[in-house]
């Protein structure tokens, strides 16, 4: 009997379709992986830098230097937070810039400066040249690199020059903090303590604290703010050449001011005239400081004035009322609107009004960017615009109609329809200078 041929294995009539890949899930995975890698990298730099400092200046110098270096940090951070009150940046991004400057930028600059000093010594050159030729280049580059990465990966969070100053300022504060630990704990306490005892070390630490913190504590934030201005200009322009040239120009200015400041001690050593340092401080640093502060304050007001120029389009469309736009134009009016919201809706109303104002400011910046042609994908910008409008509507609902002193009113994009005591709704034109936050209860599209 012949053998039966092998029977083919039965196959399913219909193959089940492969599970579709979820692009959003893959994007979240890579985003989480990148975030984790960055946190691990910064943490590794922090550990390495801490071990290096502890080994070189000792535990006592490290602890005392850290305590002294931390004192100005809240003041400096508070100054930048005050500058960013119209549209505060996410805390996570601010923490990233601070940590980048404190650990990555400082660690890299320390390695490069030390290596350069070794090379200069071998070439028979003065070590002071490192502070003039090398330190400004590597320090400003590394301090700015963190905000540049943020601009590259989170461009939508950059609303203008103010953001550039804030992000770069936080990076510079972190850098200055760790550098001050080295100077205060190492060159100050540890060096004098080793030769003359703890009392002399404490005295030297105090003297360096007065010079580096009280008189020149603003130096690093001032230098890197120049690069931040360049990054902010690049974030608010559609011209490709400006996007490249503005950050480079800002970084070069930061390096030149930094190099000029570092040159002064070398000139003092070469000439023996300590008055050179005073002239440089009064003639270079002080004017640069007050000029930058004045520009930053004017810039902060510009964000408030931007709402007056941009948001009337949403008033005409019925999304916002004239009084709401008027309350966004200055910090004083914003504060008054928050007090009103708290009076009529309690703490929930205060939070809602604050969120309403932040969302409206972001909307103004987004619309300004759309008008400038900053977005390649217009559909994405329009989606963001709709999300902000929905958020404005949701936050407004918390305090709308809660004021017993305000009659029922609605806005149709041209005028109010206010219900009078007789129960009749009558049209009323918007006042010339609306400051009372009359809410919208009905929308017309």
TrEMBL record:
| A UniProt-annotated Pfam family | PrsW-protease
UniProt source species = Catenuloplanes nepalensis
What are the alphabetically sorted keywords of the record? Membrane, Transmembrane, Transmembrane helix
Q: What is this protein called?
A: RsiW-degrading membrane proteinase PrsW (M82 family)
Task: Write out the transmembrane intervals.
Answer: 29-55, 61-83, 95-118, 130-152, 164-185, 205-232, 244-264, 276-299
Keyword S-adenosyl-L-methionine present in the record's keywords: the answer is no
* InterPro entries in the record: PrsW
Question: Record keywords: Cytoplasm included?
Answer: no
* Lineage top rank: taxon: Bacteria
Q: Where is this region: Disordered?
A: 1-20
